[in-house]
């Protein structure tokens, strides 16, 4: 029972930490929801470990082991999802950086083309 | 084709010591050039501009591939039909650029790779480990596209339309992506890729962009990417000519 309590407390701690970070605008709503759902599922699963027991027996693990395996699996999925997001953002950042550089170069060329001879002399 | 159809793209990162002389040499040879400052922390852009080059300044460091794609887009936007990639460290003399362009025109090639190792090129020395790895890369290109390339990591190349247009849309940013992978993808997509011997000089200033350890790491990555079919994609020559 102690193990389940520690896991449940860990879930509550995770939820509090995520909400604290989100309130400081360091985490967008999209990711906040994902992490809070994970924390809630972890907490409820720990408190209702009786329901996990049949599954644990079926796969030859303890209830705690099943909970931790589920949590690890979920974290793995979140990591993959974040990797996909970061890859997409890198690609978008590259596009924006190049477009911005080309735009600045074009504006500079137009500014030179539109400069009057007096301005160029001055 | 004439030199007016051609733009020399010079990606530069912290090359203020050499880029001015490179630009002046290119302009003296009658070549148009654009320096793509890849987020340098020194005054590379100012030095290049003072020397007379068009300059595109990337606000962030994207790597050679990113700087090159930006240069390709600059060229395509302005109607150039050929580009030559040229290092900003003074290794690629303008006379060799002209030779590269002549070979491209004679052979109607879409990609001409300047090789440091073919007969007739300069005596360019590399370590045993790196030579072995380049052989591995050559073998991979040969197996997957039938193309024979000795100098798989040469950054001295001429790219002509329609391949230039395709590379301006999609070009890898990671190390070796702009050399090994680009040659592989071009050959596999039906473009005419050839190799010609070149003479290069010692670096005039600056430092090499990758250590040997980094090169090994990226080569392993490139091998995995190729074997797993993770290379970047462009339209094939048949698709381009059909549209």
Q: What is the overall silhouette of chain B?
A: globular
Q: Tally the helices of chain B: what do you get?
A: 9
CATH class of chain B: Alpha Beta
Please indicate the percent range of residues of chain A in DSSP E strands (runs of 2 or more). under 5%
Overall geometry of chain A comes to elongated
Q: Any low-confidence stretches of chain B, pLDDT <50, length ≥5? A: none
How is the CATH topology of chain B named? Answer: Spore Coat Polysaccharide Biosynthesis Protein SpsA, Chain A
N-to-C series of helices and strands of chain A: HHHHH
Largest sheet of chain A: none
What is the subunit arrangement here?
A: heterodimer
- The overall pLDDT average of chain B reads 87
State the share of residues found in helices of chain B, binned by percent: 40-55%
Describe this structure in words.
The complex is a heterodimer of chains A (122) and B (243). By secondary structure, chain A is mainly alpha-helical. Chain A has a domain at 2-85. In chain A, 89% of the residues lie in helices and 0% in strands. The radius of gyration of chain A is 26 Å and the shape is elongated. The model of chain A has no long low-confidence stretch (mean pLDDT 86). Chain B has 243 residues and is an alpha/beta fold. Chain B has a single domain (3-242), classed as Spore Coat Polysaccharide Biosynthesis Protein SpsA, Chain A. Helices cover 43% and strands 15% of the residues of chain B. The longest helix of chain B has 18 residues, at 128-145. The two termini of chain B are 23 Å apart. The model of chain B has no long low-confidence stretch (mean pLDDT 87). Classes of the chains: A mainly alpha (122), B alpha/beta (243).
């Amino acid at each position: 029972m102690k193990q389940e309590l520690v896991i449940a407390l860990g879930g509550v701690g995770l939820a509090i930490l995520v909400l604290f970070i989100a309130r400081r605008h360091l985490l967008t709503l999209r990711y906040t929801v994902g992490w809070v759902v994970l924390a809630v599922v972890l907490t409820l699963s720990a408190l209702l470990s009786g329901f996990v027991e049949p599954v644990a027996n079926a796969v030859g693990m303890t209830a705690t082991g099943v909970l931790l395996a589920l949590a690890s699996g979920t974290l793995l999925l979140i990591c993959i999802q974040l990797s996909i997001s970061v890859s997409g953002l890198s690609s978008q950042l590259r596009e924006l950086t190049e477009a911005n550089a080309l735009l600045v170069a074009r504006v500079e060329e137009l500014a030179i083309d539109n400069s009057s001879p007096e301005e160029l002399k001055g | 084709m004439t030199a007016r159809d051609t733009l020399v793209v010079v990606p530069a990162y912290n090359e203020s010591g050499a880029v001015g002389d490179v630009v002046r040499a290119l302009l003296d040879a009658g070549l148009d050039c654009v320096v793509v400052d890849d987020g340098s922390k020194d005054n590379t852009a100012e030095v290049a501009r003072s020397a007379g080059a068009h300059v595109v300044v990337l606000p962030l460091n994207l790597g050679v591939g990113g700087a090159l794609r930006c240069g390709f887009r600059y060229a395509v936007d302005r109607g150039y039909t050929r580009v030559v990639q040229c290092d900003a460290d003074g290794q690629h003399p303008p006379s060799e650029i002209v030779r590269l362009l002549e070979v491209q025109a004679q052979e109607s090639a879409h990609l001409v790779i300047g090789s440091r190792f073919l007969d007739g090129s300069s005596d360019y020395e590399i370590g045993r480990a790196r030579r072995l790895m380049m052989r591995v890369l050559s073998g991979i290109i040969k197996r997957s596209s039938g193309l024979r390339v000795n100098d798989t990591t040469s950054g001295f190349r001429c790219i002509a339309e329609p391949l230039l247009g395709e590379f301006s849309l999609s070009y890898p940013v990671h190390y070796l992506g702009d050399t090994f992978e680009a040659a592989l993808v071009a050959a596999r997509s039906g473009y005419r890729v050839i190799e010609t011997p070149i003479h290069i000089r010692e670096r005039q200033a600056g430092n090499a962009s990758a250590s040997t350890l980094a090169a090994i790491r990226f080569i392993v990555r490139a091998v995995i990417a190729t074997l797993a079919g993770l290379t970047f994609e462009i339209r094939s020559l048949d698709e381009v000519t059909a549209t």
